[in-house]
Write a structure and sequence with these properties.
It is a single chain. The chain is an alpha/beta fold and 361 residues long. Strand 11 and strand 12 form a beta hairpin. It folds into two domains: 208 residues, Isopropylmalate Dehydrogenase; 140 residues, 3-Layer(aba) Sandwich (Isopropylmalate Dehydrogenase), CATH 3.40.718.10. The radius of gyration is 20 Å and the shape is globular. It is 41% helix and 20% strand. A ten-stranded mixed β-sheet has the order 2-1-3-12-11-4-5-10-8-9, with helices on both faces. The protein contains twelve helices and 14 strands. The structure holds nicotinamide-adenine-dinucleotide. Nicotinamide-adenine-dinucleotide binds next to helix 4.
Length: 361
C-alpha cells in the first residue's frame, strides 16, 4: 500500500488535485495497487481553518506518507498578511525545509499536438525535451533577510545569497545522474562573472563533472540562458541552476510547452518527495472549472515513476494525455481554433477513459 498525502491548498488546487487523485485511484484499480489518500491543510486554506499556513499536523502527515500530492497555495486574500504568515513563504518554503527537498525537477516537453499553442514558432520548439533541475533549499530565498533604517536614505532591505560547496555538489551530482538517463548533457547556469556564490558553483560543477566522463558539461550565464531558451531551446538536455535563477528560468521554459498548465514538477532529495504542478493557485480562474488539470495529472505520473518505481503505469498516464490532446480536446489555456473546449473535470474524465483503453491493450 502506498500512502499519499493530498494537499489541495488554495484556488484551483481544489479543482485539479481531485482529478489527479482520481487518475491514481484508477491506476490502482487497473494495475492492482492500493493508494491510501489522506487529505491535509496547507496555505491560505490552513490559515482560514487553523490560523497557520503550515500546521504541524500537515508536516506530520507528510512525514508519515510515501509521497505528497500538492495543488498550489496563495491568493490575494492572504497577500496582506505579514511575511511569516503568507502561504507561499511559510507553507511552501517551510514544507521544503521540513522535508529536506533540495531538488526541484521540471521537465519541459512539447506535445506535438500543442506546437501551435506556444507563443514561439513551431520550428523553434518542435522536439524540445529538457529537464530543469533547480536547487530548492539554499540561495536568496533561504538566506538571512532583514530591514534597517539608514540615517539619510530611508530603509535598507537585505537578502543574503549563501551556498556551501556541499549544497552545490549534491544538486549538481543529481543533475549528472539524471543526464546519464537522458542525452548526457548538463548545462550549469550561473552568474560567475558577477557573483561569488556563482564562482563557487562553477568550480564545484567542474569538479563533479570529472566523476561523470560520459556526460558533457557546459556552463552558461543566466542572462544568456534566458535568451537561449527562446532562441534555440533544443540545445538543452539537463539544465541545473541555483534557487532563484531556477525559479525564473523554469517559468520561462514552461512557455515552451504552450502553457504552464501542462508542466508537472517533482521535489526530491529529502525524506518524502513532493509532486505538484509548476503553476500557482491561479486566482483569476479559480472556481470556474477552467483550470487545466494536466500538469497535476502528469505530476502524479512523476510520483509513480520516482517514488514508487511504477514506470509502466506512469507511461500509461503520459500516453493517455498525448491521446487526449491528439483527439483535439483542450482546456482554455491551450485552446486553438477548431479544437474542442473542455472544462477541468471533462479533461480529467477524457484522460481516465484513455487510461482504461490503454490498460486493456
Ligand atoms: P499562477 O501560476 O497561479 O497563474 C499565472 C497565469 O497562468 C494565470 O493567468 C493563470 O490563470 C494561469 N494558469 C496557471 N495555472 C493554470 C492552469 N492549470 N490552467 C490554466 N491556466 C493556468 O501565478 P500567479 O498568478 O503569479 O500567482 C497566483 C498565486 O499563486 C499567488 O498567490 C502566488 O504567490 C501563488 N503561487 C503559488 C505557487 C505554488 O503553490 N507552488 C507557485 C506560484 C505562484
Amino acid at each position: 500500500m502506498y500512502k499519499i498525502a493530498v494537499l489541495p491548498g488554495d484556488g484551483i488546487g481544489h479543482e485539479i488535485v481531485p482529478e489527479a487523485a482520481k487518475v491514481l485511484e484508477l491506476i490502482g484499480k487497473l494495475y492492482g495497487h492500493e493508494f491510501a489518500f489522506t487529505q491535509g491543510l496547507i496555505g491560505g486554506a490552513a490559515i482560514d481553518e487553523v490560523g497557520a499556513p503550515l500546521p504541524e499536523e500537515t508536516v506530520n502527515l507528510c512525514l508519515a506518507s510515501d509521497a505528497i500530492l500538492l495543488g498550489a497555495v496563495g491568493g490575494p486574500k492572504w497577500d496582506i498578511l505579514p511575511v511569516h504568515l503568507r502561504p507561499e513563504g511559510a507553507a511552501l518554503l517551510g514544507l521544503r525545509k521540513a522535508l529536506g527537498l533540495y531538488a526541484n525537477l521540471r521537465p519541459a516537453i512539447l506535445y506535438k499536438a500543442l506546437a501551435n499553442a506556444s507563443t514561439l514558432k513551431p520550428e523553434i520548439i518542435e522536439g524540445i525535451d529538457l529537464l530543469m533541475v533547480r536547487e530548492l533549499t539554499g540561495g536568496l530565498y533561504f538566506g538571512r533577510k532583514y530591514r534597517e533604517d539608514t540615517p539619510d536614505q530611508g530603509q535598507k532591505a537585505v537578502d543574503t545569497l549563501v551556498y556551501t560547496e556541499a549544497e552545490v555538489e549534491r544538486i549538481v551530482r543529481l543533475a549528472f545522474q539524471l543526464a546519464q538517463l537522458r542525452r548526457k548533457q548538463v548545462c550549469s547556469v550561473d552568474k560567475a562573472n558577477v557573483l561569488e556564490s556563482s564562482r563557487l558553483w562553477r568550480e564545484v560543477a567542474t569538479r563533479v563533472a570529472k566523476d561523470f566522463p560520459d556526460v558533457e558539461l557546459t556552463h552558461m550565464y543566466v542572462d544568456n540562458c534566458a535568451m537561449q531558451l527562446v532562441r534555440w531551446p533544443k540545445q538543452f538536455d539537463v539544465v541545473v541552476t541555483e534557487n532563484m535563477f531556477g525559479d525564473i528560468l523554469s517559468d520561462q521554459a514552461s512557455m515552451l510547452s504552450g502553457s504552464i498548465g501542462m508542466l508537472p514538477s517533482a521535489s526530491i532529495g529529502g525524506k518524502v518527495a513532493l509532486y505538484e504542478p509548476s503553476h500557482g493557485s491561479a486566482p483569476d480562474i479559480a472556481g470556474q472549472k477552467k483550470a487545466n488539470p494536466i500538469a497535476t495529472i502528469l505530476s502524479a505520473a512523476m510520483m509513480l515513476r520516482y517514488s514508487f518505481q511504477l514506470s509502466k503505469e506512469a507511461q500509461v498516464i503520459e500516453d493517455a494525455v498525448v491521446r487526449v490532446l491528439d483527439g483535439g480536446y483542450r482546456t482554455g489555456d491551450i485552446m486553438e481554433e477548431g479544437k474542442t473546449l473542455v472544462n477541468t473535470e471533462e479533461m480529467g474524465d477524457l484522460i481516465r477513459k484513455e487510461i482504461e483503453t490503454l490498460a486493456k491493450q
